[in-house]
């Protein structure tokens, strides 16, 4: 059983259940479907869905589609895919636009209460009247319109009588408030743009703060969790919830019945937590969109992208991301998480989960001259050194092997433990080999090694126990399968790619070596993997069979992470 998670939000939830304030917890995850989800969203998803799960509550997936024409069906599908991939399921899938009629009735109620007015100021005038942090704003000359006139104008806004931007519906709160969000914020704007879900029904659209607060209230959300930048919006959130009071005015919820939606209204509480920031990454949807649009990466699911689709293709597992989110915790402290924490979570997850295989990324031929021509053997290897339940596999072995070019040195540096001319090394699971001869081409390049396998050093024999300094991995050159191996690295070479000083942009900080593709060899038991199967290629790192391009007869593996944190900044 997982340890009980402790953070200030879960404590509030516990207290609210203990005090009887709520008998069931309801949360929501409210993405705007204008891009792919990134790792920052994973933090919000794990919190929203995780809390519902841990406390026997429910979590809705709500697409925030208050902005017409921003939603793309591709993003809507991908977001659902991502949430499920992380291992969560929503109680109910909603769109903010499901509630447009409720929001409209609520706005008329605000007008009747004298809490909202139709304002004829232009956007620029509104800005001028708003004031600054140090100066109070000025009241709109339209602020004291009578209720009947406001109702009439608002209904005509809805009927489409006015041009885009000609009028807004504004909350009547306090132009002198120290919180600019309370200086008569707009609740509705005119925008004659068809909407992906409501078509031409609405020439007016609700503003985010209003729609978000009421959307939460409609769904009976108990704890509305969002990032810290909304802290200053909380007074407006509460104002909308309290002045409309959906729970106390069931007539406003009548339109839900037409959509077959249940009536569950309640008063939600907004709680903010700090956003996830990770170094060596950019995380805003805007920049991720630009990277794709400008062809700086190979699409939204490029394995170097910090989108959930990209991380998935890179070989990140839901378990690794959930472990990462648990590790960084939830607080109100803004901080920068080091990239190594993310990679560490992946290593830990894959160490337990990934079967071991052998692959060679920079091949050098090694011929064992004391084995007969055509010699073919099948060895048995454990799939996991720490977990017998992974079973064993067959690994072909023959007279000709591929070893890693880097595991041989003609002139070894100090402390070298691997192969040298005349020296010995252990071939993982096969025996001890001595290098007798170095074959070079006309340019002096080493093209082949010839050596002798000590016949008394085969696994299980007495002679296998004698000491040699190094052990190297290998594959059988006659039966290995050639593979494309993509050695991915961090997309950015600096810790803060968002740093725009000296006229630079994040584009200038791209790591030119972030994607190196090589042709290597993998043992047959790796080639036959299903797409998205992860392995530890011994001594090389964790690799995943590419989700889109891997085939048994033409394998493609992506390096997910190296075995150790070797990145020098
Ligand atoms: P971005 O600007 O990075 O795309 P966003 O807030 O505009 O993010 P939304 O689709 O509105 O994107 O986000 C849905 C939810 O995910 C929101 O509740 C938001 O607070 C949360 N979220 C977004 N980015 C992060 C982050 N970096 N860390 C934690 N939560 C995040
Ligand atoms: Mg947003
Ligand atoms: Mg955004």
Brief digest:
The chain has 14 helices and 25 strands. The chain is α/β, with parallel strands linked by helices and 569 residues long.
Strand order of the largest sheet: 10-23-24-25-21-22-11
Shape from CA axes?
elongated
Class computed from helices, strands and strand pairing = alpha/beta
Q: Quote the average pLDDT.
A: 96
What's the count of strands? 25
- Biggest sheet details: 7 strands, mixed
Give Rg in angstroms: 31 Å
Broad CATH class of one domain: Mainly Beta
Supply the CATH superfamily name of one domain: Ribosomal Protein L25, Chain P
The name of the CATH topology of one domain is: Ribosomal Protein L25, Chain P
- Helices, by number, come to 14
What proportion of the residues is helical, as a percent range?
25-40%
Under the CATH scheme, the architecture of one domain is Beta Barrel
Can you characterise this structure?
- By secondary structure, this protein is an alpha/beta fold.
- It has a domain of 216 residues: Beta Barrel (Ribosomal Protein L25, Chain P), CATH 2.40.240.10.
- It contains 14 helices and 25 strands.
- The strands form 6 sheets. The protein has a 7-stranded mixed beta sheet with strand order 10-23-24-25-21-22-11. A 7-stranded mixed beta sheet has the order 19-16-17-18-12-15-20, with no helix packed on it. Strands 4-5-6-7 form a 4-stranded antiparallel beta sheet.
- A hairpin with a 3-residue loop joins strand 16 and strand 17.
- The longest helix is centred in the first third of the chain and has 16 residues.
- The site of adenosine-5'-triphosphate has 14 residues, from helix 2 and strand 8.
- Adenosine-5'-triphosphate binds next to helix 2 and strand 8.
């Amino acid at each position: 059983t997982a340890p009980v998670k402790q953070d200030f939000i879960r404590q509030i939830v516990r207290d609210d259940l203990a005090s009887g304030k709520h008998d069931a917890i309801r949360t929501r995850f409210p993405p705007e479907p204008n891009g792919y989800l990134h790792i920052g969203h994973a933090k919000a998803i794990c919190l929203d869905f995780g809390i519902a799960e841990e406390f026997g509550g429910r979590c809705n997936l709500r697409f925030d589609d208050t902005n017409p024409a921003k939603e793309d069906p591709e993003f809507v599908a991908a977001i659902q895919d991502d949430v499920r991939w992380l291992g969560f399921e929503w109680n109910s899938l909603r769109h903010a636009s499901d509630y447009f009629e409720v929001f409209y009735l609520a706005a008329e109620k605000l007008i009747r209460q004298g809490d909202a007015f139709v304002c004829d100021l232009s956007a620029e005038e509104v800005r001028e009247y708003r004031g600054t942090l140090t100066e109070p704003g000025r009241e709109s000359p339209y602020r004291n319109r009578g209720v009947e006139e406001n109702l009439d104008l608002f209904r005509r806004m809805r009927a489409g009588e006015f041009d885009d931007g000609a009028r807004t519906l504004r909350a009547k709160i306090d132009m002198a408030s120290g919180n600019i969000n309370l200086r008569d914020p707009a609740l509705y704007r005119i925008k004659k743009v068809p909407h992906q879900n409501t078509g031409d029904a609405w020439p007016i659209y609700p503003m985010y703060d209003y729609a978000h607060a009421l959307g939460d209230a409609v769904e009976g959300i108990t704890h509305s969790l969002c990032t810290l930048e909304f802290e200053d919006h909380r007074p407006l959130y509460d104002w909308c919830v309290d002045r409309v009071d959906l729970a106390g005015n069931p007539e406003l919820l009548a339109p839900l019945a037409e959509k077959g939606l249940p009536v569950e209204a309640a008063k939600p509480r907004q709680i903010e937590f700090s956003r996830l920031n990770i170094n060596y990454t950019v995380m805003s949807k805007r920049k991720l969109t630009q990277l794709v649009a400008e062809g700086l990466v190979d699409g939204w699911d490029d394995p170097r992208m910090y989108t959930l689709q990209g991380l998935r293709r890179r070989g990140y597992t839901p378990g690794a991301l959930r472990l990462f989110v648990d590790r960084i915790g939830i607080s109100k402290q803004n901080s920068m998480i080091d990239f190594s924490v993310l990679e560490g979570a992946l290593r830990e997850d894959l160490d337990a989960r990934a079967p071991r295989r052998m692959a060679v990324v920079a091949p050098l031929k090694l011929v064992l001259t004391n084995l007969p021509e055509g010699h073919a053997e099948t060895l048995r290897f454990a799939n996991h050194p720490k977990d017998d339940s992974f079973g064993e596999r067959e690994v072909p072995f023959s007279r000709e092997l591929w070893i890693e070019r880097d595991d041989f040195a003609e002139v070894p540096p100090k402390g070298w433990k691997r192969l040298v001319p005349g020296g010995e090394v252990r071939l993982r699971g096969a025996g001890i080999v001595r290098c007798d001869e170095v074959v070079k081409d006309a340019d002096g390049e080493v093209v082949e090694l010839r050596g002798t396998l000590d016949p008394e050093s085969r696994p299980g024999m007495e002679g296998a126990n004698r000491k040699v300094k190094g052990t190297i991995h290998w594959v059988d050159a006659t039966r290995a399968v050639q593979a494309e191996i993509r050695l991915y690295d961090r997309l950015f070479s600096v810790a803060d790619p968002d740093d725009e000083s000296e006229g630079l942009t994040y584009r200038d900080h791209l790591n030119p070596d972030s994607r190196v593709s090589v042709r290597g060899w993998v043992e047959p038991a790796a080639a036959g993997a299903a797409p998205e199967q992860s392995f530890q290629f011994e001594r090389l790192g964790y690799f995943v069979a590419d989700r889109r391009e891997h085939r048994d007869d033409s394998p493609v593996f992506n390096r997910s992470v190296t075995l150790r944190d070797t990145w020098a900044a």
